[in-house]
Amino acid sequence: MLATYNLTGLTCQHCVNHVTEEVSALAGVDRVEVSLEAGRMTVDSAQPIDFALIVAAVAEAGEDYGVAPA
Asked: Out of 6, 18, 43, 68, which residue is the most buried by the measure of CB atoms under 10 Å away?
């Protein structure tokens, strides 16, 4: 199942790496792709991932980062 999110606050590849690492660590997530240029993230998982978990993972990656459903 693919879910797409809009991201804010990311300014460099380092930011992308942090978000990718934190969201990838969530149970059930198979793959995460973050586009700095587009400000988007795609999460691939077998089952839907609770949006609150996505928000918490993005916040853990950086306090200035934001996420919203696309």
From this structure: 43
